[in-house]
Amino acid sequence: MALVFERVVTEGLGDLSYLIGDDSAGTAAVIDPQADVDVYLQLARRHKVAITHILQTHVHEDFLSGANELAARVGNATLCSSAEDAAPYGYAHEALRDGDCLAFGSTVLTARHTPGHTPEHMAFLVAEEGREQAPYAVFTGGSLLINAAGRTDLLGPDRAQALTAAQYRTLHDFYLKLDDGVIIHPTHAHGSPCGAAIGDRLSSTIGYERRFNPHLQCRSEEQFRRFALDGLPPKPSYYPRLKETNTVGPAVRHGLPVAPPLPAEEFARRMEEGGAVVVDTRHMLAFGGGHVKGALNIGMAAQLPIWAGWMLDPAQPLLLVVESDGALDEVLRLFLRTGFTRFAGYLVGGMTAWDNAGHDVVATAQVTAAQVHDRPGDFTLVDVRAPHEWASGHLPGARHVYLPELPARAGELPRGKPVVVYCDSGYRASIGTSVLQRAGVAEVANMPGSMQAWKRAGYPLEGQPAG
Amino acid sequence: MALVFERVVTEGLGDLSYLIGDDSAGTAAVIDPQADVDVYLQLARRHKVAITHILQTHVHEDFLSGANELAARVGNATLCSSAEDAAPYGYAHEALRDGDCLAFGSTVLTARHTPGHTPEHMAFLVAEEGREQAPYAVFTGGSLLINAAGRTDLLGPDRAQALTAAQYRTLHDFYLKLDDGVIIHPTHAHGSPCGAAIGDRLSSTIGYERRFNPHLQCRSEEQFRRFALDGLPPKPSYYPRLKETNTVGPAVRHGLPVAPPLPAEEFARRMEEGGAVVVDTRHMLAFGGGHVKGALNIGMAAQLPIWAGWMLDPAQPLLLVVESDGALDEVLRLFLRTGFTRFAGYLVGGMTAWDNAGHDVVATAQVTAAQVHDRPGDFTLVDVRAPHEWASGHLPGARHVYLPELPARAGELPRGKPVVVYCDSGYRASIGTSVLQRAGVAEVANMPGSMQAWKRAGYPLEGQPAG
């Protein structure tokens, strides 16, 4: 009998999902699958196990659940969802109760109701057969995280107080009573907006978190409440949409969304028809060198799903420009992760075909940190980072407009000087420059390297907290 | 700053290797790389880090080290080897001393001399910058393992006593003084012959092992000595060869070994020339259906490297038959792992081409557990499993010849009845049947499913330990 254990890291979203089972029994469970489910099927086949159960720790808001898609693709797996304090689900499932056990060969999972991040939240203790009283690990979903705990404000201010109190009890009455040697396998990890300052380790232990996790240092519920609800990152605008979709149960697609191939002439015609938005997924420098007029630049990178979520309406069809036609599947996979499935098509042959067809391209200027530093006062500097990043220090004379607010607030920017948009690396800034170009701002430049390059050069910051 | 952490599982050999680093600093280390190093290069590229250091916990005996190959393929990485009680190395390296620290962004590794499995053995503590006194994990190499400890008898009986005493001190004076919440990342894992009864979890913690690891339950050095040196699996015959190769430093190949393509006529001609051995890497049932006369059947599976190691001489060129030509690279990768790099060629087009060229094939009968059970006394039953497997119970009337001894002992088998070879699954048994066919034994059959099928059917066992 041998354990099967695989951790799937979905970078950008900062989520982890898992395959756990036993290749002698030939069975396994997937925990918190992402929407692009091929990876779980491939892992199951490599390990020669049947995925018999699909478990969700909670109703996710930060990604499109792959549970229903995976159940359909497997064909005979049981989809399990928490029945403790749960809103009614819109899909067929087996109800999980606190204390329910599932065995996969010699590995035993026990569901534990651990509310706080959400009301219905379930953790899964992992034990060896015969040692059920001494679990060696726990899948913590969105409850106890690395250096953090799942945020409790996502269901709105009305419910935040009760959920925060529940999270405090979950941490103290459940997690802190486990042995120090129990390994923590969270779903939400570094980079996830489902918690503040989540650490970058992929797993931890009760002992290490007991000692260092700031959420576990709070000695009273009141202290915890203040700490837990303070300094949270902005709640992504797409969270309520995904919460609703995941509660109802996402449509089964049997694969990636479809983006029909559009030769340059057709792509141009489809643009003229209106109703679709052009998203150019190339690197910011390629976008800067030349792009289709009106395109939004959301680069093909791990964080694409988050920024598509913030900046785009999933009801509006997308027209895609990709770095190379071979990258299309990867781009579709990234969009799918936050529920984007409507594509009017992609530009066949990419920008080369567009150029050869004789269509116009628009450039975006790129300015370096040194150029901005050496010409103080020459630019209107726009910082599009999140409020807590802005509060940790920014470029002298910059103004702050968080990127998701930029489309509505483009008109506020003073005219007369070229606008330079920056963020931490240039990725979000390039989205911002494309937003401003679409809004008709004449002179706009991106700042590749952004704050990282600024700091590396040792240039001064403004607005840094004291101490 | 974000941690990069990847665990590479080399199934069959039961070894784990690791990439750990920081994608903000852009640097990483690889720990105990296997010989097929592409996976580390791919992981480093995916995470956008430079492999700056290649660390080895000890001089390995169970696999061909990939450290030198990886150093050459990276181009500018530093290869670090323990200088504590180490035999002289035959390759350029940086000497590691107990207490040496290496930082990769905010991740700090500290080398700790932990002799026992080998004299020079190093573990690597892992800590977050600023918390060096509270490591959160430790790469344990071949010292503290999951549910086990690295065996101490590999350098021969002369050194076993001193190494066992050293291992006892390593476990008690180093590991048991760490916090319960420290995560253990071993190199030798489930299935590795470098320890007995290694557990199938991929990581563990000091706390869980303190409680359940039988090696940590021994309360005196004397008790530990008896426990540690008892019940060890047979020491693979290829271990001394790999120890020597890895001490000198394996030749850098810049990729997989070469197996020239041989059309059927050339393959047959090369066979007639002599000096080469035909290894058929197909599944036992395909081999049974028809194979080249004289072929040894070592199936393309995770355990191929171990059985190639036991059954073949790396100085003798191999002639390969593969399931499909597309599987050649995977087969070469498996052979490389225990140091097989001499290939006379492979049969282009596989057995289909052989058939079409009009060459003879030989079949091997396959008998089921039910057939053996229903015809008691009709067969000479040969159990080719390891001694400790035989001792846990075997088929009634069977005789035991451990597979590696079968070539020399084929003549001992009584004539007159068909010989049925079995193991646990049929994989080793099929190697055994091919050995006997090569030795000229007339009637030989394999038993697919072997002990697993026998037990599943509820048939009686003989020689089971009492209780």
Automatic annotation (TrEMBL), chains A, B:
One of its GO terms (molecular function) is sulfur dioxygenase activity. GO terms for biological process: glutathione metabolic process; hydrogen sulfide metabolic process. Keywords: Hydrolase, Metal-binding. CDD domains: POD-like_MBL-fold, RHOD. SUPFAM superfamilies: Metallo-hydrolase/oxidoreductase (SSF56281), Rhodanese/Cell cycle control phosphatase (SSF52821). It holds the Pfam family Lactamase_B. SMART domains: Lactamase_B, RHOD. Residues 272-363, 375-463 form the Rhodanese domain. The keyword Phosphoprotein does not apply. The keyword Hydrolase applies. It comes from the Bacteria. PANTHER family: PERSULFIDE DIOXYGENASE ETHE1, PERSULFIDE DIOXYGENASE ETHE1, MITOCHONDRIAL. This is MBL fold metallo-hydrolase. The lineage of its organism: Bacteria, Pseudomonadati, Pseudomonadota, Betaproteobacteria, Burkholderiales.
